[in-house]
Structure formats: structure tokens, C-alpha cells
Amino acid sequence: MSAICPLKGRGVLVTRPTGQAERLCQLIREAGGEPIAFPTLEIRAAKQPEHARALLAEPWDLMLFVSRNAVEHAVALLPPDLRARWAAEQQAASGAERPLLGAVGRATAMALREHGLAPDLVPERGFDSEALLALPALTEVAGKRALIVRGDGGRPLLGETLRERGAEVAFAEVYRRVVPDVDLNAELAAWRDRLGFVTVTSDEVLQNLLAMLGPANCGWLLAMPLVVISDRGGATAMQLGFRRVAVADETSDEGIVEALCRLAMSLG
After folding, report:
1. Is the CATH number 3.40.50.2020 carried by domain 11-41+182-267?
2. Pick the residue with more confidence: 64 or 2?
């Protein structure tokens, strides 16, 4: 990729949470860029996980995971014997006693597979609630029990739509998102000299970044070329004032770097 990707040593701001940015940083280096890791979001376990743990152990028709973080923190709360039974039933092609497992996108589906749980419902295209809701299995859900596994808060669309379609919906909030407490003054001077591109993976990550910078420092950042991972994220970025935005074709690290390269080539 580095032979055709004109990053030319320019800095690429990587705003993913600590522990989730290593692969993306590696691919940016291979593409000829200089990754600058600066997480604008921290992922922490739920303060009081007992309610989520109890929900996860209940019988459900559908269990829908909205992110890789949701999978990782839910697996830590699932009773080991329950997870083992689900995996065994999947291998036996029997789903009579386990919920259908849904993943909002490929990265979330991969996280389930890494824990021995093959997802039943994954959008072929798209990686958001809208894409998941378009699957045939989620259009006829009247009378079914659906558990949405997510962080604290989050978009209401998935739950609201399933309820409108007649499902009984509950939420297992298995993690929380926290804005890092950091002093940006030491970073800003170096960023102005090195930074050529910005990457963000959610609206919240982008809004946190701008809030951490403050109004006095946002002007020059808004002029930076930006890569996002969804059309919705692109629309948010444009509303916030970014002028050059590229949307990755998929949410994977490879997809983000491909969008970076495409953006760099368009700029010359």
C-alpha cells in the first residue's frame, strides 16, 4: 500500500481509545504516514454491572451487539457455562435454546467469533443500526424478546424501531464511555507542525476531540482532511465545520487506511 499511498510521512491523528489503535497505527506506518495516537474516549467497565449480568443470563430470542466493546464487556459478564452451551449449540446447528446473535457490523461480528460465538445476523452492507434493522429477521419480531447490548446511553433508533415492530426490548449496558482528562497544551504545537490528516470512528469521538481542543483551537483542525467510517459521521463532520471529509467503505482498519490514501491522492 505504501507504494501507491501518498501520505509522504505526514502525521495522521488516531483518536481511537487506548488498546484499540495499535493495528490502525501499524497500517498507517506501512502506508507511509506517521500515526499520532491521541484517544478522545476511554472505555471502562460499567460501574454497577450486576443488572447487565442478570439480563445477559435471561432467555432471549434476539441478542444484538452494537460494537466490539459491547462484545468484549458482555463476554466478561456472561456465565461461562452459558457461553459454552451457546457455542456448542451453534456447532450442532441448533438454536432452540439460545438467542439469535446479531452484530451491527463486521468488526463486531469478528469480536463474537473470537469468543467462539458465530453471529447469526450481520448486515452484508453498512455497519449501523439502520443496516441491522433492514435484515429480514428483524422485520418480523412481534412478540419476541430482544436484548440490545451496548454502552451507557447510545442511539435510541434500534430499540425504538424494534418496539414499534412489536418486540419486547431491554438494554444491557455493559460499559461506559469517559472523556480522557488530559492537558492538550503540550500537544498542540507539535500537531500544528506534523499533522496532515485526522481519523475518527464515531460522532462522539469527534465531538470529544473538538471539546477537548476548545473553540480557540478548533479553526485550524477543521481545515484538516478527515476520515470517518459512516455517511452519518460524514454528515456530522460537515455540520461541525470540516470541509474535506472521506468516508471509509468499511469500518475495518484497512478500510480507514484505504480512505486515507484515497483522500491523500485527491489532495495531490
Report:
1. no
2. 64
